């Protein structure tokens, strides 16, 4: 399959987005590495192509369009606003070397805070319509529900921040839960620091990698953490049950409402989910058959903080999702200097649609 074919199909998709009122935008291929590192941390280096410019400093080949579109809207946009775009993105594929590291995306973004659940439904329904003739199945989730559950746990703010930081790393998140609940043994190096009458001597090998003040602050934090009572077994049980919710939307909503009785912090997020289901049904989406998983998107959608969705081909497990998207209000707040601009959007990969069409 040629890049030309993918670009041609992306032009068709962009035209459909324009018919819905979206303004086409173009974004530079080279993006500020500083901005992306600030958002995603050093982990993004493993997924992006980095280069140096003598005038602009460290740059990255565009890993996605969302960040530059948000930056443009923050500078120039007025709400409500809809944008569409198409072009190449670049991502290293160390875990999947057989997958393309350069490919075309076509995307649609909505900035509208008047009715967030209605905007969620608009974006999803538009994608479902565009993909209706392809052999794909949709899945949805809501990062906001898990975030709300963590926000309601009876733990210190330090522990809460650690869990929120690792929501997108399920193994690390699970390890933290086990540690905070007292289920995991204390690592030997940590145990030595906690038991020592001279912890700086134990930490001496780290000096040079970190400043002495930073190490002392870390030792204090470790002692404070060790003195904190464990996360209750009851809360762990409820959290584990939440992570296992995987049903069609109506059954998932029923289960989540049951869990909200024991985890009351879930209440507002669950009711947002209920309103989204109503908005989706109003746009003709068969909510009765639409899959929902609490954990959906946790390994690949790290800047989303609410509704998430994806369309994948069940008969082609070798392919990544052909379309993904979701809500990213927190991202707009960070790029907007604290002023959150409610936003939701998604992208489609034309090359994968062509591959599915060729296989049909």
From TrEMBL:
Record's keyword terms, sorted: Glycosyltransferase, Transferase
InterPro entries: aa-tRNA-synth_II/BPL/LPL, HisRS-like_core, HisRS/HisZ
Pfam families reported for this sequence: tRNA-synt_His
Keyword Cell division recorded: no
Residue sites binding L-histidine per the record: 64-66, 91, 105, 109, 298, 303-304
Keyword Oxidoreductase found: no
UniProt-listed GO biological process terms: histidyl-tRNA aminoacylation
GO molecular function, one term: histidine-tRNA ligase activity
Residue span(s) of domain Class II Histidinyl-tRNA synthetase (HisRS)-like catalytic core: 5-195, 220-347
Protein name: ATP phosphoribosyltransferase regulatory subunit
Gene Ontology CC terms: cytoplasm
